[in-house]
Design goal:
about 140 residues; two-stranded antiparallel sheet; alpha+beta; three-stranded antiparallel β-sheet; HU Protein, Chain A; extended; about 30% helix
Length: about 140
Amino acid sequence: MSSDGIHTTTKKELVSRIADQTGQTKVVVKQILQAFLDEIVVELAQGNRLEFREFGVFEVKERRARRAQNPRTLEKVDVPAKRIVKFKVGREMRAKVCDEPAPKKRVEAKSSTKEVRPEPPPASKQPQRPTNNSPF
């Protein structure tokens, strides 16, 4: 455990847990997990987007070149353009990890007819005055 109380889980620990859950050997699980991770890297290197429903989305973004400042020396520095990997958290992970309720799924209307709602009455242009005579 690190000094701030957060445990770092290693690939070896994940392999061991998955092997226990699936009944596969650790060698087989490690090969599959490594192949999975390698394929993610290959796809991102090609500029592709990876979407794992309910888990999240990995995608490569271009960060443009910019002029920055070294905070110690206050010297202006040119930062070149570069590619970065972004990860957007999926619905299920957000609900479990971020303590946020999962957003409701959109439900498409079954009929093709539009629902007609009555228009609300026009608002009065004069402000409403309080009914009691309290100065507050």
